[in-house]
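Example 3.2
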Amino acid sequence: MKYFKYFLIFILLLIILLLTNNIFDKKDNINLQLKEDNINLQLKDGIVKIKTFDDKAPNHIQHIKNLVSEGKYNGVVFHRVIDGFMAQTGDVEFGNSNSEKFDLRRAGTGGSGKNIDQEFNDIPHTKGVLSMARSSDPNSADSQFFICFDDATHLDGQYTVWGEVIEGIEFVDNIKKGDPMKNGLVEDPDKIIKMWLD
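Structure, written as tokens:
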């Protein structure tokens, strides 16, 4: 009887130990998932934190995260910025000020060379939302994206929304604006200093 009590206590402690480890493992997995959902974008005035909508645009987000991990966005300019509307960036081919191929006149015409099929979704284009730039072909989005300065609901259902600013929107508001008479073309534009996954 005495040994049976010890045996029961041992089994009970073993179960508690296993449950505790399982809880910590789940907590670590949740933290990892939360971390993977965030992208940091450093601008001249500060860091912008972006939450991604992985369930809404998984292919676009994976492509963007790959480019971020490779450092492709570091030094890329905001080549088209329209006050009250949006700031466009992401031309990793001709818009990267750190590259030998940098050409401000051609910025906005290049990309990574990999088009992603559209993933239009139900998230509206509101202030702080990030969405993919594209040509008239719905499946032509590549590396370029824009950040909304204000609500632009006329774009809903026509462009792939993939994220939103959750911190640092004031730094986005400070991005240098372009000439409204030249469709937002920016001379001596601001740039993405660095992008990285959190």
